[in-house]
Design a protein that fits this description.
635 residues, alpha+beta, Neuraminidase, Rossmann fold, 4-stranded antiparallel sheet
């Protein structure tokens, strides 16, 4: 029987604990012999990253048991914290000391790199019998030194191959072992602004000379050798990240592999991210993003056909073996999953891990791609209406809505199932996930709408999206809240002080003071604001004008602030200053700080508390009960 209850107070089987458990955080995956290995964040074990394997008999076992934790801190965001050899030797970066270890089956891990508190490794890759990595060395200079290195498996040492730039990624060794390709970029650029693909000749294990193959005015990614004379890579020189093939002859002949009005590539936040893979027979499996993700099979002559796979958002091509590919991502009925796809028989796709949520697909809202008119152009978003097979709202009542603002701000959200979103929609709270100007997934021009305009275009876009949704009658205009983390938290705060579009806000480790971020944050993002706002000190007036903490008198609506105590990206001082400003003005608020957490929450108890606190906050502000979730006192 369908109950009629106020929006927001619908009974739901989705507990915060169930949502956390049903959304595994997959951190890389590989074929190892006949088995599939993957990294997975284990919230119940203080958020450590385990490495697990599924054997051909279907049984899952830990390869890396507790307390070991495969997590890199290169660029602070890490990535590529583990890989494996063909014979099943696990190679991984241990979080606590950032050393690289080797672990053979049945043996204890043994260290391969010397202990050094200033040294970190990431982007590990096993190529042609060699372990390559990106090394980051912190010393007296504020800018760490980074190089691509080879790590000996016998523990005899680490040798540097090349160190020609502020940042390096995606090392790729040619089949003969005579050349190395890699991605490089320098301050003040971010890798999605400008980067280069370089190819260098190796002599005695060192790059002795190199040539720029692509880049300078574009952002090429992920070089991969087809053979000793041909290199594949993604490049957005045409405005979309497409795949190119470069013949390394005297005149460097370059040809598009298969042009498309979609992106095969994205922001390089984590080392080792892959958007395509080459099969042994020369075909290529690639992700194409234009709002949602599509996986395609590209023949050697460029002919392209879609692969009908479950994943439609945040898809990563993890590995390839024979005609099989390993994909991670989310789908319309699966918050997170890992699939094996045989490209010649995609209908036989096999779910390895994750999959449909245990509460049933009838509780999952179907995403609806929507576009709104904004001051600088169209604003893309995905709408998730209240969805509950056992409840409905009263006649004449419109539901409250939560406008999600992603971080980055270059990140992109596709239309796919999310336990976090369903947690709210199953209770009668709609969610609008906005890809404001600056987001990836819609081409370089859309991404560059935010260049020099952070705190302006993003704010205008989320406000336009909220107003556009309310104008359709889908949302109660008096009960629209905005929520986001990190750079998304900046947009939350900037929208609250700069518009009257929202009745409440939720900031997760959000940026409140742009000048403090530019001076306090880590090296990877230390010049990021040069492109988003302008270089200091010349642009200091803009930093002051756009920073939400510069305008505490404009804070008018209730706010929930969630913060990690050990956040190196957005330190707690920013959230504390925001809390103090709210207290001085008598604005209802709650400030929750989580010990042991960094930039994002990984521990099970904190994930649960944060999600329940968000729901309780909305209930307190918008006047509905939250069955099963204790009230949140507001100061």
């Amino acid at each position: 029987m369908i109950q009629t209850r106020s929006f927001g107070s619908w009974p739901s089987p989705l507990t915060a604990a169930a949502v956390g458990a049903a959304t595994p955080r997959i951190d890389g995956a590989r074929f190892v012999g006949d088995d599939v290995w993957w990294g997975e964040g284990v919230a119940e074990e203080a958020g450590r990253t385990a490495v697990r394997r599924r054997a051909v008999d279907g049984r899952v076992r830990d390869v890396l048991p507790p307390p070991w934790n495969a997590r890199s801190r290169v660029h602070e965001y890490g990535g590529g914290a583990w890989t494996a050899t063909e014979d099943g030797t696990l190679l991984f970066v241990e979080k606590t000391d950032q050393c690289v270890y080797a672990m053979r089956p049945g043996e204890e891990p043994r260290v391969l790199t010397p202990p050094d508190r200033g040294m970190r490794f990431g982007g590990l890759s096993w190529q042609r019998g060699q372990l390559l990595a990106v090394r980051e060395t912190h010393g007296r200079s504020p800018v760490p030194r980074r190089d691509i290195v080879r790590i000996a498996l016998d523990g005899s040492g680490v040798s540097s191959l090349v160190d020609d730039s502020d940042f390096l990624a995606h090392p790729s060794l040619s089949p003969s072992g005579h050349h190395l390709a890699w991605v490089a970029w320098n301050h003040p650029d971010m890798p999605w602004d400008r980067s280069e693909v370089r190819v260098g000749r190796l002599e005695d294990g060192v790059v002795v000379e190199w040539t720029t193959i692509a880049g300078e005015d574009s952002a090429p990614l992920q070089p991969l050798w087809a053979d000793d004379d041909d290199l594949l890579y993604a490049d957005d020189s045409t405005g979309r990240w497409n795949l190119w093939r470069e013949h390394l002859s005297a005149d460097l002949e370059r040809h598009p592999l298969s042009a498309a009005d979609a992106d095969t590539g994205g922001p390089l936040w984590a080392l080792g991210t892959r958007w395509y893979a080459r099969l042994e027979d020369g075909r290529v499996v690639a992700v194409r993003t234009n709002g949602d993700d599509e996986v395609v099979l590209i023949q050697e002559d460029g002919a392209t056909s879609p692969l009908h796979v479950p994943a439609t958002s945040e898809v990563v091509v993890e590995d390839a073996s024979g005609t099989r590919v390993l994909l991670s991502g989310a789908s319309v009925d699966s918050p997170s999953g890992l699939w094996v796809i045989d490209v010649d028989h995609p209908e036989t796709s096999e779910l390895i891990h994750g999959g449909p949520a245990p509460w049933g697909t009838e509780w999952m809202p179907l995403p609806r791609a929507v576009t709104f008119d904004g001051p600088t152009g169209p604003v893309h978003a995905f709408d998730y209406p209240p969805t509950n097979p056992q409840a409905q709202g009263p006649d004449g009542e419109r539901p409250p809505y939560l406008v999600y603002v992603h971080g980055g701000p270059t990140v992109h959200r596709g239309g796919a199932a999310s336990g976090r979103i369903a947690y709210f929609t199953s209770r009668g709270i709609g969610v609008l996930d906005v890809n404001y100007g600056g987001s990836s997934g819609y081409g370089r021009a859309y991404r560059e709408r935010l260049r020099g305009q952070w705190g302006v275009v993003d704010v205008q876009d989320v406000a336009a999206a909220a107003a556009g949704l309310a104008s359709t009658g889908a949302a109660d205009p008096a009960r629209i809240a905005i929520a986001g983390g990190s750079a998304g938290g900046w947009t939350v705060l900037a929208a609250l002080v700069g518009t009257d579009a929202f009745a409440a806000g939720i900031s997760r480790y959000g940026v409140g003071d742009a000048r403090a971020l530019a001076t306090d944050t880590h090296d990877y993002e230390s010049r990021y604001l040069d492109g988003l706002i302008g270089p200091l000190p010349e642009a200091e007036p803009l930093y002051l004008e756009r920073s939400p903490l510069s305008h505490p008198e404009r804070l008018r609506v209730p706010l929930l602030i969630l913060q990690g105590a050990d956040d190196p990206v957005v330190p707690p001082a920013q959230s504390e200053a925001l809390r103090d400003a709210l207290a001085q003005r008598g604005i209802p608020h709650a400030y929750i700080v989580y010990e042991g957490e960094g930039h994002g929450f990984r521990r099970a108890e904190n994930i649960v508390n944060a999600l329940e606190s968000e729901l309780a906050f909305l209930g307190a502000v918008f006047g509905f009960e939250t069955p099963g979730v204790p009230p949140l006192p507001l100061s």
